[in-house]
Amino acid sequence: MVIYLFMPENVVGRGKVRATFNLPAELLEEARDTVVALAGPPYHLTLAKLVEQALRAELDRLRSERSGRLKHRQFPARSEPVRAGRPIG
To answer: Which pLDDT belongs to residue 2?
Structure first.
């Protein structure tokens, strides 16, 4: 999965920003089907809400896998811009 993030590097605060992702077509179709099926009560699910919840859950999982005193702590703030494009290696 290739992820492209387009957002100003100097964004401060907790506002929402736009992010663009390239995902496998079948994954996006399943997500859209799920959102349509769960759009009403009690979930009121949207695609943005599904993606936000999934990203938060994955970040929590990655933090919990760290060892020692770093376990469950946030990763350090980046000192360089996020690289866009295909991963190397």
So the answer is: 45
Distance CA 72, CA 51 (A): 21
Sign of the Cα torsion 67, 68, 74, 76 reads: negative
Instruction: Compute the radius of gyration of the chain from its Cα atoms.
Output: 16
SS3 assignment, position 4: strand
| Amino acid letter, residue 59 | L
The CA–CA distances, whole Å, from 41 to 29, 37, 38, 44, 46 equal 21, 10, 7, 5, 12
- How far is it, in rounded angstroms, from Cα 70 to Cα 59? 14
Q: Which residues contact 66 (CB under 8 A, 6 or more apart)?
A: 72, 73
- Tell me, what's the pLDDT at 15? 87
Q: What is the mean pLDDT of each run of 10 residues along the chain (89 residues)?
A: 48 77 93 97 96 95 92 90 74
The tokens describing 40, both together, are 């009403």
